[in-house]
From TrEMBL:
InterPro entries registered for this protein in UniProt: MetI-like (IPR000515), MetI-like_sf (IPR035906)
Keywords linked to the UniProt accession: Cell membrane, Membrane, Transmembrane, Transmembrane helix, Transport
Record localization: Cell membrane
Domain ABC transmembrane type-1: 84-288
Endoplasmic reticulum is among the record's keywords: no
UniProt name for this protein: Carbohydrate ABC transporter permease
Transmembrane segments: 20-41, 88-107, 119-140, 146-167, 205-228, 269-289
Organism (species): Faecalibacterium prausnitzii
Pfam families: BPD_transp_1
Protein family per UniProt: Belongs to the binding-protein-dependent transport system permease family.
Topological relation to the membrane, as annotated: Multi-pass membrane protein
GO CC annotations on file: plasma membrane
Any single biological process term in GO: transmembrane transport
Amino acid sequence: MAKNIAASRQKKPGGLSDKVSDIVLVVICAAVMLIVAYPLYYVLVASFSDPYDVYAGKTFLLPSQFTLKGYQAVFADSALFSGFMNSIKYTVIGTIYSVVMIYLVAYPLSVKDLPGRKYISLFFVITMYFGGGLVPTYLIVKQTGLLGSMWALFLPGVVAVGNVIIVRNFFENNIPRELLEAAEIDGASKWTVFVKMVIPLSRSIMAVMVVYSMVAYWNDWFTALIYLRADQAPLPLVLRNILIKSSTSASQSSMVAGGFAELNKLTEMIKFASIIVAAAPMLIVYPFVQKYFEKGFMAGAVKG
């Protein structure tokens, strides 16, 4: 009798056993992981290989004709270090500022008795679908004196409405209002409740917002191209300029006998090396916040 009950628990009605189901899920997850991770691995291998071997399909798993010329060309540029430091500065300041503003907007909108809450939320949602465009935004930045200032990267779009909605839903579904109201009855001000209760209880969703903001500011080169000077360029923009210069040199060398082939190879090496150099910092940081990122991302999936 006991054996029959155990067997019925292990096998789902009309389906596979739990063990077989787990194996199938693991295989599917492994296949998806390979599909997602292999392109980055391929670029990493290609950055250490001869470009002609890359295009010939000789670098499926391991580098072919191992070389560091691409990285040497990238790190030889004097602007790389300043671009790296600029990116760190913009990412740290922008992430802190963005997360603070998201919290200051999302928490009041999570309070259901906030006067005009529906209309304020509607105002924010409208900005997700309608905008003035690049030229009006540039004119506003210029007239407000932000042109050439790093604050031009932050102020025009500091509040990401999609992130505000995620954080607001987290506050509504995962922080009991009764707990906050009890603290206010005991004499705590709204600011005290926010700082000492809401923020500590929402560290998981804060980690999600930190990752989102870090990736956005680290990869943002177009905004810097429009508003900042050359010496203020972040790392992605510096790498873009290096690649453009190498491509221009390769095209100009076509009139020189034997020069085009080598310069074209160097341009391709720089292309792959630039991708790795730009992506490496975020790949290094992500494992340290992965636990909080996953917890916060899934926290709002089930209403508590």
